[in-house]
Specification:
Blueprint (H helix, E strand, L loop, with lengths): L13 H14 L4 H6 L3 H15 L5 H14 L5 H11 L4 H9 L6 H15 L6 H9 L4 H24 L20
Helix pairs in contact: 1-3, 3-9, 4-5, 4-6, 4-7, 4-9, 7-8
Length: 187
């Protein structure tokens, strides 16, 4: 098992202190992931920037959740699946969607299923999707902009999922009630 240091505002490198203060103001706490990322101010800033940019895309709250959780579950991230379950609850995303994502079951609509399927293809095929994959995604009502926005969401999630794998980041107390592991998948 590997671990990395989890910083707080006092122990963080100078370049991360303001970023952790912003994280505390936004979340009422410093999420453990942010504390780990703080070792590299550049990575913490990149993660926070990508998060902000991804939330400003054309995706609605359900679609954001589908992209995030599809990637988190595929990457088997013990930290991000519960964290994004909590975030989905805060965003008032229907719990049945969150549970479907956590358990790898069908999405509630064809459009969300198409987004889930396309996101999985991008992850599993490392971006080498086919024209048929694109056409299927377009038929569901998405366009080229959303293809690129999935890549933006993936960039954010690679930072957090991979960091959590290496750091073995403990799940924060507010997220623990949503604990998840691949062994708990009901499907």
């Amino acid at each position: 098992m590997t671990t990395l240091k989890i910083h707080n505002i006092e122990t963080a490198p100078e370049g991360s202190k303001v970023l952790l203060e912003q994280s505390f103001k936004a979340n009422g706490m410093i999420p453990g992931l942010h504390g780990v990322l703080a070792e590299s101010p550049e990575l913490l800033e990149a993660y926070q920037t990508l998060h902000k940019l991804f939330t400003q895309t054309s995706f609605n709250k359900e679609e954001l959740t589908v992209v995030w959780q599809t990637i988190n579950v595929e990457h088997e991230c013990h930290y991000c699946v519960p964290a994004h379950t909590a975030i989905a609850h805060m965003m008032n995303v229907d719990a049945s969607l969150t549970e479907a994502l956590r358990n790898r079951t069908a999405m509630p609509t064809e459009k969300l299923q198409a987004l889930h399927d396309f996101t999985l293809k991008v992850v599993r095929q490392r971006g080498r999707v086919t024209q048929k994959d694109l056409n299927d995604f377009y038929k569901a009502g998405y366009g080229e902009k959303q293809v690129l926005e999935v890549i933006l969401g993936l960039a954010q999630k690679v930072i957090s999922n991979y960091t959590n794998h290496i750091a073995n980041t403990p799940v924060d107390v507010p997220f623990q009630k949503f604990a998840w592991s691949k062994e708990t998948v009901k499907a």
